[in-house]
Amino acid sequence: MVYSYxxxxxxxxxxxxxxxxxxxxxxxxxxxxxERGKGxxxxxxxxxxxxxxxxxxxxxxxxxxxPELNAALSEQLEKIAHSTLLGSANVPSILLAxxxxxxxxxxxxxxxxxxxxxxVEIALKIAYQYWKNLDPVRxxxxxxxxxxxxxxxxxxxxxxxxxxxxxxxxxFAPLLFERIEVPAPYVYRMEEYGSEQDVVRHCLNxxxxxxxxxxxxxxxxxxxxxxxxxxxxxVHPRGFLKGxxxxxxxxxxxxICDEVAVxxxxxxxMFACEQEEVAPDLVCLGKGITGGYLPLAATLVTEKVxxxxxxxxxxxxxxxxxxxxxxxxxxxxxxxxxxxxxxxxGLLDDVQRKARRLAGWLERLYDIPIVGDIRQxxxxxxxxxxxxxxxxEVFPRAAMLEHRIILEARxxxxxxxxxGPVLTFIPVLAMSxxxxxxxxxxxxxxxxxxxEQARAEFG
Length: 459
Ligand SMILES: *Cc1c(COP(=O)(O)O)cnc(C)c1O
What we know:
- The protein is of the alpha/beta class.
- The chain is built from 15 helices and 17 strands.
- The strands form 4 sheets. The protein has a 7-stranded mixed beta sheet, with helices on both faces.
- Strand 16 and strand 17 form a beta hairpin.
- Bound molecules: pyridoxal-5'-phosphate.
- The site of pyridoxal-5'-phosphate has 15 residues, from helix 6.
- Keywords: Aminotransferase, Biotin biosynthesis, Cytoplasm, Pyridoxal phosphate, S-adenosyl-L-methionine, Transferase.
- It catalyses: (8S)-8-amino-7-oxononanoate + S-adenosyl-L-methionine = S-adenosyl-4-methylsulfanyl-2-oxobutanoate + (7R,8S)-7,8-diammoniononanoate.
C-alpha cells in the first residue's frame, strides 16, 4: 500500500510528536516526509530530492543506501538480529570492541549502549563510582562534575545535568545534579579577552581556579573535544583541549571526552582527541559509529578506571548498569563494516581535502551582511547569522529568520538545520565536492533571499 503525501501528512500531524519541535508551529507547515535515500540525497514521498546537509543529524558517513553496508547488515540478519550481553556474549560486539580499542591504545574496555546520551550517562556513573570504589571514605565528597559553558551532552537527566545550554537547563533545573561551569573558548563572542590564544588562556585559567580550589570534590571534567556541536559549532582554538587534559592530570580528576558528534572522521581525523594527542580516561562514542544506519553508542575506559570495578561480588564494586539492546548484533556488525570502509575508501584523507575546498566556498558567504561568523572544523560548519555585524546582535527569536532560511534552502533542494542563530552545514561525510559546492550555492542564495526580506522587516 502506497499512501499519498496528504494522507501521511495528516497522520503525522495527528499521531507523531516530533523531538525538539514546537508542534503548534510544526502543524502549520508542510512536513518533509522522507521515503528513501541514495548517496548524499534524501528523497521525499513526492519524489523530490534534497542534498543531505545535516547527515541525517550528524550520523551519516558513507551516504544513504550504501551497498556494502546493506550487505553487512543483511548478512548479520541471516544469522541473528539480537541476543543479550547480560550474561552472554555475541560475535559482532566482540569484534567491534577490539576494533575500536585499536584506535585508543591507552584504553582497555568498551561498554555498549544505544544513544549518545546513554554513553554519557554511563561515563558519568562510572566516573562517580570509580572514586567510591577506590576509597569510599577518602573520596566521599568527590561527586561533582565540571563542564563547559554551552556544553551539550544529550537529553537524559544526567546528560542534561552536565549540559550548559540555558534553554534546556533552566526548565529542568530542579531535577538536575550540581555542575560547575567553566568558560569555553567561544572566540567570536569573547573578543574583549584579546587574541585566540588569550581566550584559551583565560578559559584554562578559570578551569585551573576551579580545580585548584575544589579538586577534592570533583569526580570528572567532561568536554566535547575540539568542537562544541550543539552550542553552534564552537570551534576551540588549538591547545585548549591539551590544556584541559594537563589540568585534569595535575589536579587528579578524570577527563571524559564526549566524541559523540566529532568521532568517526567528522573533524578530519578518526577521532578529535588525536589532533591534540589527548588521552582521556573515558570516551563517549555514538552518532557516526554505525555510519548512520542504526542506534549504537559506546563508552570506552582505561585499564585504571576499569580495574577499580573489580572485586568480590559482596564488595559491590560491580557497575550496575545496562540497557536491553546493549551490544545489539545488527548495530555492531554495521559499525564494523562502517569502520572498515572508512579505512579502505580512504575517507579521512578525503574529508581533509574536501574540508579545504569547502572553506574556500564558505568564505563567499561573507558577501552577505547578515553573515557574522563562519566556523569550520573538518566537515562540521556553522554560519552565525547576525542583525548587525559590528555589534554582533542577533535577530529576535520570534522572527525565526534562521528557520525561514532553512525552509528556503529546502525549497531549493538542500536540508540543513539551525541551532539558535547558527546555520549548520554538516554534510554526509562522503558527499562529493560537486555536491558540496552545490549545497553552498543553495545556502548562499537562501541567505540572500532572507537577507532581503529581513531588510524590509528590520531596516
Ligand atoms: C548528539 C550528542 C549527544 C547525544 O546523543 P544522542 O544519540 O542524541 O543521545 C551527546 N553528546 C554530543 C556531543 C552530541 O552531539
